[in-house]
């Protein structure tokens, strides 16, 4: 935690908790480093579903080539927060209204998920034209990863043998310009595994295009760059990834590669800060009950991991009774929800944790607040603080 952020977190009163802290300077530096690590010819899009907070998007805008959206809602949001930014629209189950919205303008690529979707699209086109990628579910074993989206039965993308039907529809229709292939096959990959996958996707895509006489100009490799919640310091190796992509592209000088990471871009800039309300001992285990919970930060429940955290000691205690504490023992950190699933971290060794101390959960900048069930139990929503090196921009809102 940067000193400025730590000071801000330490300065929060009990009633200011829980709060989300976003470190905009950290995000800016991280995004710039990712961009710098990639070859200039590789396009970097940010997958907005990881976190579409407008202030984060505003920072990212200067460092990415565009944004990937997966719904009409995200499309509208991006068009109003980042007007003019290139947008790719992907995701399964696009409705006719969403396709129409995409065709009305501002969408630079539409990722086709199925033959049905292509029929819907061509039915809506009229005089208009559109640039598409076909999303393919390649028969590539992705191994043990956090989330596998391809290489197995899946609602995402097209099986390779189904591509030909789509190709026939596109070839007969000059309004649909087929630019290439999209393959977002897995998430949670390290740089070596992702490069290996990228190589196999490129080999497959170029062979397919050659066989079918298709002019392949673009391949979108998706996102899925890994985030290690158990070892937050071990980040995706963007330098190695960039070097590997540069090498891969040597064999394909006319190809444009695009990636669309989400989690690995914004996860590190977000913190969920709260306080310990109670320390309880139950049947030999110690529980710290925190203000807030997985209705604000569902990530550990969704991914079944321990959310990493830092304890920020608060030394004042003005009650008349003895302050409950845990000392040099394993503690399970839970929230205020009346369900045993409301666990943020299970059986984690702590030096000392007392009622009234603050706990700052890291890696809360992606798939955190926005995937959580906010209304469950009707506790107050957290406030959001965007911290930047320019103090005028800092402060809570919402
Ligand atoms: C979710 C998603 C991404 C981003 O994945 P991350 O794991 O957040 O990097 C990119 N592309 C598509 C098609 C997705 O569904």
Automatic annotation (TrEMBL):
InterPro entries: Ala_racemase/Decarboxylase_C, De-COase2_N, Orn/DAP/Arg_de-COase, Orn_de-COase, PLP-binding_barrel. Keywords: Pyridoxal phosphate. Residues 25-266 form the Orn/DAP/Arg decarboxylase 2 N-terminal domain. GO terms for molecular function: diaminopimelate decarboxylase activity. SUPFAM superfamilies: Alanine racemase C-terminal domain-like (SSF50621), PLP-binding barrel (SSF51419). The keyword Transmembrane helix does not apply. It comes from the Bacteria. CDD domains: PLPDE_III_PvsE_like (cd06843). Its cofactor is pyridoxal 5'-phosphate. This is Diaminopimelate decarboxylase. It comes from Streptomyces filipinensis.
